[in-house]
Amino acid sequence: MTEVRPLAAAPASLWERDEEVAAVVRAIDTLGVDSASSGSLLMIRGEAGFGKTALLAETRRLAEERGCTVWSARGGETLRSVPFNVVRQLLQPALMSLMPEEAREYLGDWYDIAGPALGLADPGERQADPQGVTDGLVTVVRRLSRRDWPLVLLIDDAHWADQETLRWLAAFAERLDDLSVLVVVARRPGEMTGESARLLDAVAATAARPATTLSALTPDATAGLTRATLGKHADAAFCREVWAVTAGNPYEAVELLAKVQESELEPTESAAGELRALNRSARGGGLVARLEELGIDATRFAWAAAILGTGISVDLVAKLATLGREDAVRCAELLCSARILTAPDPAAGQTGEGDLEFVHPLIATAVYNSIPPALCTAMHGIAAQVVTDSGLGAAAAARHLLQVHPDDDEELVEQLREAARDHLAVGAPDAARRCLERALLEPPQPEVHAHVLFELGCATLLTAPARTIDHLQTALAMPGLEGDARVDAVFRLSQALLHNDQLEEAVRTVEAEAARHRAGPARMRLQAVQYMWEGIYAGEATSPGRSERLAELARTCTGRDNSERALLMLRGFDAMTHGESAEEVVDLCDRALVNGRLAPGLGWTDTEWGVELLLMLANAYAYTDRLDRADALYSEALRAYESAGWSGGHLALAHAYVGVGHRRRGRLREAEMSLREALRLAERVGRGLPLYWTATCNLVDTLLARGHVEEAWAIAEQHGFAPPYPSTIVLPDPRSVRGRLLLAVGRTKDGINELEAAEKAAAVRGHHNPVLVPWAFDLARALATEDPGRAARLATDVRRHAERLGTDTAIGEALRCAAALETGQRAVRLAAQAVAYLEASPCQYEHAAARVEYGILARSVAELNRGLALARSCGADGLVAQARAVLETGRGLR
């Protein structure tokens, strides 16, 4: 019989792993060809003991033999609640080799964002954005990978990795096409559920080849391993029994054969019957019995080590197990001799504060599960104190506090609240949520209970708005939240309702709370929030006479505090959407600023009011031709979010509105770039949200302006730019943009229907700013042939609204529309007037379009060339082609 042997010089646990090792060799060799080569990911799946760790160790050996830099880390069964645990193991060694000032210089702006998550820097005062931290960690590895190429990352026991690490790993794996890094991930099948399972599946999906699934050893391979360990004289019956009692599990086979050697058992058929008893002693209850044989001190030491899970130093274990230093050292030696604990392998690159680790996760699990439940709980409580006393902080102690039984402990509640704040500060809201949920079980004292619920609601606001609603509604129904804290809680609740697509309930919530307050700053703030949510509602106004009441309230405001400034911004935005005088709109907005800038407490990263209010201010400027101020605010938002590391929805919105600024100015290429980035970021946050609609709508609008109709249609189809529309308003009006798109692709009837729906929706809301809701321009042109009378009435109405608004852009566009419906010299005169207004407008695309149209109507080569030059500078390829086509024919031109 032919024995299946491992590769030469490979350890015993690599028997029958030739194909897997060969795949690793190919990946390493490919990595080393060129520093510009694409990275790759290998996923190794296998049951406990099937040799995943051994295969990673062989990967390390092969990689280092070929001159690669290797970093490694592993998950831990009791450490899954510790945020960034695995990624810290992976990256800290490389970063710790740098001096603090070197690390700061090397990571640049990302140091303050990713540094706290990695334990390299103190967290800032604000709650960190989880997506920003993830992006920061991706950037850290990107920069280090260029320095340390060729780089191999090994992650063992990924099924026990913390969720924050898995989020980083999923994001990093998506970027491997432009990173020359090899990532090898080992995991057990199953073991994970929920978000962690989804993230690990996303990691696996990026692999260049299907996951390698390790199988049990065959009888032949087990026989080969047995004879390689015990000698060629081991007979066939003995070898078959080794395979039978271990079921071909490589780890169990290696451990069993070690026991055979220790017991000096002869590998003969007559001794085969003793193998089952030996195997039981190496696992489960047998391991526990063997541990007890080492004595009570050694048992307590092993238990304490299992409680700690990581950072297993003799000194910490001694404190937890209440052992003297000498006794602790002796116990450590006993447990190492018994192959229960071992010193970390320096060659494995694993670093930490510990002197010891368990020989195998199976042993760690067996020891932990052997601790009597009541004692296990008590030891976690002691461990929390030991960790805190060691100066590691509340966050490090939190995983132990989560295991302690509820007992009306006020101090424990405060420790968990502090740990939650620490977790939020480094971008780990899920870890914060676990701490606060556990604090509620204690339970908190009555005067504290509502505050804990409020903090829990804030921690889950961005990740679970429905859960946030429950927490905050419960908190507000309890005593304890008073004054500003209560107003803050109501505002957060209204935000959660907004994010959960319950905008009308958000309005009613703040309206009811405002009625409870007397006149003053708190009531004014709540009224402003009510008007803010009503202002972005896309349906019918939720309270009759809203605009009149808002105008009356704002009339008394001088901008002396942020509540008054907010009301001025809201009134300015409301007036802009209704198409009131642009001069009055700008005056209202200017009065909301302090020396032309946002007031303290009203910045883009301040949380008292939210981003919606500031976007209303910026958009009020944008759609009244004050693009200088709009651009300044959009750019300020982008800088603020980038420097704060906010890479989620806030950054997506900032890029989208920077794109809006470019689009309004006619910088169409720049607009397209910003909006594509906005859409990429919005995809990560989730489809269907207002920010997703904003990015998609404006990208479609920009592509249509560029003349890229097919691409605009493809974007609309790919990203669901079609009814039903969101409950919040999107700027510009998505129905108007989709109607223009349908006309452009030749679906005239559908386009007219969509534009008529836009007309009805605008009438319901009283939105008569023709630049913000531009349905009338396109509908008039579409109806010019089949219903010229209605088209003329629409053109007259839109001109009336444009003159009421009074901006050069609105009036110029209205004149363009009127010219398109006329013929002869009247059309020429109207087109000339449109050019005159749009030349004074900051919107250069519209100016270019008016020039080209005037040149065609006037048959003027000079005007066409002017329009052509403007169209080129804007990136309006469709206008360029139109102007060129007329110039090339030359018929009737002068």
UniProtKB/TrEMBL annotation:
Residues 16-184 form the Orc1-like AAA ATPase domain. SUPFAM superfamilies: P-loop containing nucleoside triphosphate hydrolases, TPR-like. Residues 493-520 form a coiled coil. Gene3D superfamilies: Tetratricopeptide repeat domain. Pfam families: AAA_16. Keywords: ATP-binding, Coiled coil, Nucleotide-binding. This is AAA family ATPase.
